[in-house]
Amino acid sequence: MKQQRFEQAHQREWQDFATQLDALERGKSGAEYRRFGAAYRRLCQHLALAEARGYSGHLVERLGQLALRGHQQLYRHREHLGARSIGFLLAGFPRLVREEWRFVLTAGLLFFGSLLGMGLLVYFFPELIYSLVSPERVAQMEAMYDPDASRLGRFGERGSGIDWLMFGYYVMNNVGIAFQTFASGLLLGLGSLFFLLYNGLTIGAIAGHLIRIGYQDNFLSFIVGHGAFELTAIVLSGAAGLELGWALLAPGRLRRDEALRRAAARSVRLIAGVLAMLLIAAFIEAYWSSMTFVGAPLKYLVGALLWLLVAAYFLLAGRDRHAPD
Amino acid sequence: MPPHATSPAKPPSPPLDTRYSVETPEGIDLVLHPAGLVPRALAFAVDLGIRGLILLLMSIALALLGELGLGLMSLLFFLVTWWYMVLFEVLNQGRSPGKQLLGLRVVHDDGTPVGWSASLTRNLLRFVDILPFGYTLGILSCLAHPAFKRLGDLAAGTLVIYREKPAAPPQLPEVAPLPAPFPLQLAEQRALLDFAERQSSLSLERRRELAEILAEPLAVPPEQAEARIDGIARGLLGPA
Lengths: 325, 240
Prior knowledge:
Mean pLDDT of chain B: 84
Distance between the termini of chain B: 41 Å
Number of helices of chain A: 11
Number of strands of chain B: 4
Oligomer: heterodimer
Radius of gyration of chain A: 28 Å
Strand order of the largest sheet of chain B: 1-2
Strand content of chain A: under 5%
């Protein structure tokens, strides 16, 4: 068949298809949906025919553009994000963390190891803190956890109408740290390593210092609650970053770019979970941890329960494949 | 028999330009045109400006709300910093406002529209692309990669492509259609048609020069070659 007859025979169809595409691209949906699949398949057939018959470049390109636009619409993601997120949080996330236990364990040892080590060092050799934290920062920390303060943490010296401010601040600050820890893992894992150790050492040094000068009740009762979520989340984002780096260092039988793509697809799901944990942590930190009218014992109790909850969640949730349905 | 003759259909040679071809489940090849550094940088600059404007306007509005406003402000800052790109790319068919303006869109490597996890990956890893300053790593990676991917694109398996605009129908010279003097192969047929369709973009001298190459196989004097090719192209399109 000559090209002009082919064009005449199908011109109408192509125009209709383009009109459908215009509507879909503007986000409209209508009765055309039902005919879209068939129209797209016919267009693909016409494109293949035009190529095989050696029709002119202009026609092939025009059909190719229509096919590309149709392809974009047919394979659009219309997933139910809400349902998927709930399923992920109930089962997928803890399951993923258990599957990635090597990275989680490594990141956990690095972070908590440096935290405890530095804490002990500062406790016994107090001047060590100044090698890591500036004197102004130390003074600021001391003021924040002063036993005489009525509210704890950052913004402690201000009134009670600022829970929102604290919530916003914690979300921005902590999620930023988690994202950095993850993303810098792309530098062969070195960035994640750095942020894990740096955060571990800093938190350890401050903890050791505050405990040594006798502010331990305020400090520990403040962090024990949200720490369950926040510290675990930092470890997990470090684990996700280490996974990225490891894919580059030891890609196994895959090409490096393929290994990186697979590792990224898995680790970004870890980060989605980390995000949820940090939102919970910021909520607890702003609305519960900063309260001083509840005594320290109650806070320790709640804190212990939260740690148990987090541990149980990661160890037990999602064991049964059918649970989230 | 040379060894390569036994192999089944030779894979098509890679295109001379930056086009990027993916085969779809429908059995057709989609041709994508990856966008290079400059349009992407411009799109990013537009997005940066829009984000700055949003933050500026909202901070003025929220400053009136006191501490609640400050809290909302930092939440907003968080959203705009980390989620602006992701939300637009996923919910607006791969186009942030800047990309939409520049006619770009983000797709997966296989040409399908970008989803949550790929978009989140490529935008979180932006943090590495901007290292050590001013997008140095991203620019280096973008310039070195055949499909102009920055590091985030490499990890997420995404491409930034041009959104093609339909070309105006070509004007073929008005000559009487002629039958081909001998059966043409597909590639030859395409070459003749392309020559006829691209006439308007070539100079007279260049057209002559190109057409004269075919004077001998078509058995015409060199000065008639162009008219003959146009005639054959016409004949290929419509009734001869």
